[in-house]
């Protein structure tokens, strides 16, 4: 079965406040430069791309995403110098080199980060900056259990034996990679974001907006309902019924600047 577009902007934005903080922390790492060209890879609904464009006082910002559902929302934004286009990050290239390559919470969907980061670096002008945030929460029950259930039947068979790989590297490997790619300055950190959710059950709603879309896109809709039901049950057994629920979420924020 081929993967279909299961991104749902409304579900994704249910936890907007929680998802925004890492974005702002990432933007804070970038140098303010008037008249710059910026690309936002995996821009989603474009809400944050518009903020990025304004914060960096960029001349041109282009948001790239492979989900038509997300882009449809993005295209309703009417901001001077801000455009959106469909594209797959693994293949897309800018027409001209850019000053900033930015990506918030998207590159975890792509494999082979060594090759990917080399590609992204090649999009930059001398002195250009790369700023990326990726989740690194794969050892939390919320992520571990989804992967575990996906390896069980009937789900594994329905997905043609596909299993999800977690391409995110340890922070020190990104630091080494940035050095090898020629970044003269860099900052790489692992940060734990503290989210207080209404209940442990709310974790299901959180991951339905992101992580689970990967499984949803690969199985029939009715089977996906069973997947979520099994996930909810397993998560409840693992976390208990907590109200509120403290959801610690690890993320890696990395930034580098090429020599001028
Ligand atoms: C978790 S959302 C993040 C959206 C936005 N950057 C934000 O911070 O709100 C991830 C986005 O990456 C996009 N995405 C995932 N894989 C992609 C790929 N290979 N090429 C382009 N976009 C991709 C998804 O469609 C989704 O909109």
The secondary-structure class comes to alpha/beta
Oligomer: single chain
Report how far the terminal alpha carbons are from each other: 47 Å
Q: How many structural domains does the protein architecture include?
A: 1
Helix content: 25-40%
Q: What is the strand arrangement across the widest sheet?
A: 3-2-1-4-5-7-6
Major β-sheet profile: 7 strands, mixed
Tally of strands: 7
Envelope shape: globular
CATH architecture: 3-Layer(aba) Sandwich
- The rounded Rg comes to 19 Å
Please describe the structure with a list of short key phrases separated by commas or semicolons:
37% helix, 260 residues, binds S-adenosylmethionine, 7-stranded mixed sheet, 11 helices, alpha/beta, Rossmann fold
Task: Explain what this protein looks like in three dimensions.
By secondary structure, the chain is an alpha/beta fold. It has a single domain (9-257), classed as 3-Layer(aba) Sandwich (Rossmann fold). 37% of the residues lie in helices and 23% in strands. The chain contains 11 helices and 7 strands. The protein has helices at 9-12, 16-27, 47-55, 68-74, 113-121, 141-150, 155-158, 171-180, 202-208, 213-216, 221-239; strands spanning 37-41, 60-65, 82-86, 98-104, 124-135, 185-197, 245-257. Strands 3-2-1-4-5-7-6 form a 7-stranded mixed β-sheet. Strand 2 (60-65), helix 4 (68-74) and strand 3 (82-86) form a beta-alpha-beta unit. Helix 6 packs across helix 11 (221-239). The protein is globular and about 55 Å long. The N and C termini lie far apart (47 Å). 36% of the residues are buried. The mean pLDDT is 94. Bound molecules: S-adenosylmethionine.
């Amino acid at each position: 079965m081929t993967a279909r577009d299961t991104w749902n902007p409304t579900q994704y934005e249910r936890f907007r406040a929680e998802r925004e903080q890492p974005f702002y922390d990432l933007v804070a790492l970038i140098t303010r430069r008037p008249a710059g060209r910026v690309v936002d890879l995996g821009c989603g609904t474009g809400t944050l791309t518009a903020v990025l464009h304004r914060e960096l006082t960029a001349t041109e910002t282009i948001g790239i995403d492979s989900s038509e559902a997300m882009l449809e929302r993005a295209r309703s934004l009417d901001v001077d110098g801000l455009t959106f286009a469909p594209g797959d990050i693994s293949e897309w290239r800018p027409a001209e080199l850019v000053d900033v390559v930015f990506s918030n919470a998207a590159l975890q969907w792509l494999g082979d980060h060594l090759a990917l980061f080399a590609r992204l670096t090649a999009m930059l002008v001398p002195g250009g900056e790369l700023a990326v945030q990726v989740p690194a929460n794969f050892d939390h029950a919320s992520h571990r259990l989804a992967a575990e259930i996906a390896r069980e039947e009937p789900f594994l068979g329905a997905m043609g034996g596909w299993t999800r790989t977690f391409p995110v590297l340890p922070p020190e490997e990104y630091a080494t990679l940035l050095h090898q790619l020629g970044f003269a300055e860099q900052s790489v950190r692992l940060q734990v974001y503290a989210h207080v959710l209404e209940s442990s059950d709310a974790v299901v709603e959180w991951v339905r907006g992101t992580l689970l879309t990967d499984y949803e896109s690969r199985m029939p809709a009715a089977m996906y309902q069973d997947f979520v039901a099994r996930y909810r049950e397993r998560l409840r057994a693992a976390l208990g019924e907590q109200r509120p629920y403290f959801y610690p979420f690890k993320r890696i924020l990395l930034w580098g600047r090429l020599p001028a």
